[in-house]
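Worked example 2:
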Amino acid sequence: MQYTTREIQLAAALVEAADTLVEDFDVTRHLERTSDRCVELLAARTAGVMLIDGDRAVSLAASSRNQRVALDLLEAQHGGGPCLESYGSGRPVPPVSIRTAHVGARWPTFTERALRHDIVATYAVPLRCRETLLGALNVFVPTLPANDPPGGWAPEVLVAQALADAAAVGLHNHRAYSRSLTLSGQLQQALSSRVRIEQAKGMLAERWRVGADQAFIALRQYARRHRLPLDRVASAVIERVADDDALRREAEGSLPGSPGGTP
């Protein structure tokens, strides 16, 4: 089986959109690349992505091709437009003539701005991962594509939807990856803190010739009285910069040899 150049480019674009498990990942650049691939594969004038949360745009990104035009058209959709409509329905907005939409008072602010930029037609697809909607991808084209085939979407819309789905999967995967890194870091920090506390307990217990529990009481009481993290007090003990006398006084009721303590 032979593949066309466009099919190969699409496959490469889908892989690129899903490859987001890196620490230096940048959301805006990720969406800009997706928009660039739309322009290349769909012969579009420009394209852009609107991330939406609660019917409010929270982030905009556009193709490097005619980027200012795309961003201007995305910003013009605060009162309604293809992105908000696609996001609201969870379905693609099929290719529509800008002039026809303007005459019909559909998205008046957006269509007026689009006419100023000589945009002929547009369509949008939802940016989604499974059932979670993240926003919409908007494509701006120089000619109105052929009518949608009966019972289905135009090929251009299907390609745009595939790219949008891959971009959404990439965003979802990176968020999960970031959460796992954060959790891993928190667990490692907690483990390291516990190791330092145990080490400090052992040092005080040996120095004072008491049990580890009594040494821990001294650490904990000192940390509470001075409003310091227990880990910080333990580190001071390990580094031998802690006030040993002050620590002993915090556990006078339990340390042997202290006033009121065990003989």
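The mean pLDDT is 83. The longest helix spans residues 155-208.
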